[in-house]
Amino acid sequence: MKIMLACIGMTLLITASCTSQITTKTGLQEYIGDKKNGLISEVNCTGGITLKMRYIPAILLDPKLDTNKGYYFLFTFSRNGKELLPQLDNDSYSEILNVLSFRMPGYISLVSQNTSLIEPEACFFQQTFGLTGGNELLIVFSQEEMKNAGRFEIKINEFGLNLGPQTFQFDEDALKKVTEISGKLKI
Q1: Residue 181 CB: number of other CB atoms within 10 A?
Q2: Mean of pLDDT values over 118-131
Q3: Contact 168, 153 (CB under 8 A)
Q4: CB contact set of 35 (below 8 Å; sequence gap of 6+)
Q5: In angstroms, what is the C-alpha Rg of the chain?
Q6: What confidence tier does 68 reach under pLDDT thresholds 50, 70, 90?
Q7: What is the pTM of this model?
Q8: Which of 29, 62, 88, 123 is positioned for an S-S bond with 93, CB 3.0–4.6 A?
Q9: What is the C-alpha separation between 51 and 110, in angstroms, rounded?
Q10: Of 180 and 154, the one with more pLDDT
């Protein structure tokens, strides 16, 4: 019993010391990229399609952004490690591009046991013309509306890829921890 408690104590100490030593932008990016920190949720679909939702702290987008206003998530979708959109036929490409550029907020919601349904404040799609490993959509939720969300899900309804609705799970505590770390960064 004492050995088990000592192991648990050491694990907590190591975990706490690792996060307290993050002082650079690169260190924060590595922390976010580590799936065990709960900031990435990924779904593998048929046909080699991968959907990934990742939390991005405001400070990594722009150091001047108010870190207490919004929670930012990057939704990435790819097929076999390449952007998905250029792999579509012309009709599908045009329709999905239109949806991503102008109508995505209507397909996205955040659901929690502790809050009512939350719609995104904004969505931003950036065309990269096949130059990256996946198409990306930046999704912004109000931090005020998400107060006390606890565990939550970001739901993306079918928007033209014929994948059906998809769910990405997160915990508000993981986001708050990154906000705390971000305050100590030297950028």
Answers
A1: 20
A2: 91
A3: yes
A4: 42
A5: 18
A6: confident
A7: 0.85
A8: 88
A9: 17
A10: 154
Pairing of strands 108-112, 122-126: unpaired
Listed as own residue / partner, the contacts of 168-171 with beta carbons closer than 8 Å and 24 or more positions apart are: 168/41, 168/43, 168/51, 168/53, 169/41, 170/38, 170/39, 170/41, 170/53, 170/55, 171/38
- Give 127's pLDDT tier (boundaries 50, 70, 90): confident
Ordered strands of the 151-156 beta sheet:
108-112, 151-156, 166-171
Residue 17 CA to chain centroid, in angstroms? 24
Rounded-to-integer distance, Cα 170 and Cα 37, Å: 10
Q: Among all chains, which residue has been given the structure tokens 């993981």? A: 174
Half-sphere exposure of 123 (CA within 13 A, CB side): 20
> Cα 5 from chain centroid?
34
Question: Does residue 159 surpass a pLDDT of 90?
Answer: yes
Which ranges constitute the DSSP H helices of 85-136?
90-98
pLDDT of residue 14: 42
pLDDT in the model for residue 23: 84
The closest alpha carbon to 126, from 91, 167, 85, belongs to 85
- Which helix or strand (DSSP H or E) is residue 145 part of? none
- DSSP summary character for residue 107: G
Whether 176 and 19 have beta carbons less than 8 Å apart is answered as no
Task: Determine contact, residues 128/135, Cβ cutoff 8 Å.
Answer: yes
